[in-house]
Specification:
Elements: H1 2-19, E1 28-34, H2 41-49, E2 56-62, H3 67-80, E3 85-89, H4 96-105, E4 111-114, E5 120-121, H5 125-133, E6 142-151, E7 156-158, H6 164-170, H7 174-184, E8 188-190, E9 205-208, H8 209-215, H9 228-240, E10 242-254, H10 281-294, H11 303-313, H12 316-322, H13 327-337
Parallel strand pairs: 1-2, 1-4, 2-3, 6-10
Antiparallel strand pairs: 4-9, 5-10, 6-7, 6-9, 8-10
Length: about 350
């Protein structure tokens, strides 16, 4: 009798697995945008191919690099000889954010990560970030991990970028966050109303595809040319909050040709950016909020939820400006948000 029931149980489990896929069957997408970075990209690609989670696709979008860089990129891809790597060539240079969404258009994974060509993934990046997203407690539009810094051609510089653990110790909250990470795969959930900068950089992020699709538009502002991560992460956070995993699963490569990052590192409290860096975070946040408002946001969010989030991130004057050409939407938001 026990053998009979064991046989029935095994048969039913097999049928269930045919309906609900295992996490190992989850297709993850990695998008690498490339512009004249062929001297770095091979190591980034190798870190993707070294993932323990094998079910992924890697879309490299070349944003009209110089012929020598494009040729070298093609040689690298050919030498790696992995069918999971796909090259998309753009006919003209449109900037990083456009390149990200071109990569999205050529991909199919439900979960999408962005890897800078001078950065690296730890072998467990995809696996642990998927576990973070697929926790049994809460869904979020984006997941982020702690990030390390290393000097390309040199040594490790830091195992902390966000400083989550430092702040948790200061607030006597570290045991709680460590328990959450052990039990559920994430350290902390930040709801969409959280207004501070929560993330490291591009290569620490994994998005839900549906969130990125809502952020797609035909043209992007000039300030997003180098800041695709800011546009995507702030927009996704406004849509559905952030899950944070306090573990170094990706590495930021530091070198003298970084577009934004300073090549010097000596403190958690220093200015991390190049001297000429101009902070466009506020402008990008307003731009991505405008995108959400334009892209049928009430199909995805209730007026109450949308109003609560926007009122947290923008002053009343800024919000009225965002809603200036949408009086009906403004009425719904202010009526439901108790403004």
């Amino acid at each position: 009798m026990l053998v009979f029931w064991a046989h029935i149980l095994e048969a039913n489990q097999t049928k269930l697995l045919q309906i609900v896929p295992d996490v190992k069957q989850t297709l993850a997408t990695v998008i690498i945008t490339h512009y004249n970075y062929s001297n770095f990209v091979e190591h980034a690609l190798c870190s993707v191919l070294a993932q323990r989670h094998l079910n992924f696709e890697c879309i490299i979008v070349d944003d009209c690099s110089a012929p020598t860089h494009l040729q070298k990129l093609k040689q690298i891809i050919t030498a790696l000889a992995d069918t999971r790597i796909q090259l998309v060539e753009l006919p003209e240079n449109k900037g990083q954010t456009n390149a990200v969404f071109e990569g999205l258009k050529n991909s199919t994974g439900e979960f999408v990560s962005l890897l800078d060509p001078d950065d690296l993934y730890e072998p467990l990046f995809i696996e642990k970030m998927l576990r973070c997203h697929l926790n049994p407690c809460v869904s979020a539009a984006v997941a982020a991990c702690e990030m390390g810094l290393f000097r390309i051609g040199g040594s490790i510089l830091s195992k902390s970028y966000v400083g989550f653990k430092r702040d948790a110790i200061a607030n006597n909250e570290l045991p709680k966050f460590e328990a959450s990470q052990y039990d559920f795969g994430f350290s902390k959930f930040y709801p969409a109303e959280t207004t501070s900068w929560l993330w490291a950089t591009t290569s620490s992020l994994m998005f839900r595809r549906d969130a990125l699709e809502i952020l797609r538009r035909k043209t992007y502002m000039q300030d997003t040319k180098l800041f695709a991560d800011s546009y995507c992460v702030m927009g996704s956070h406004l849509l559905g909050g952030t899950l944070f995993l306090d573990e170094v699963l990706s590495w930021r490569g530091i070198h003298k040709n970084n577009a934004v990052e300073s090549e010097h590192h000596f403190s958690s409290f220093q200015r991390r950016h190049q001297p000429e860096f101009v902070d466009t975070t506020k402008a990008i946040k307003a731009f991505v909020a405008k995108t959400i408002l334009e892209n049928d946001c009430l199909e995805h969010l209730t007026p109450d939820r949308l109003g609560k989030t926007l009122k947290s991130h923008f002053t009343n004057a800024e919000l009225l400006e965002l809603l200036a050409d949408k009086p009906e939407l403004a009425l719904k938001i202010y009526t439901n948000a108790g403004a």
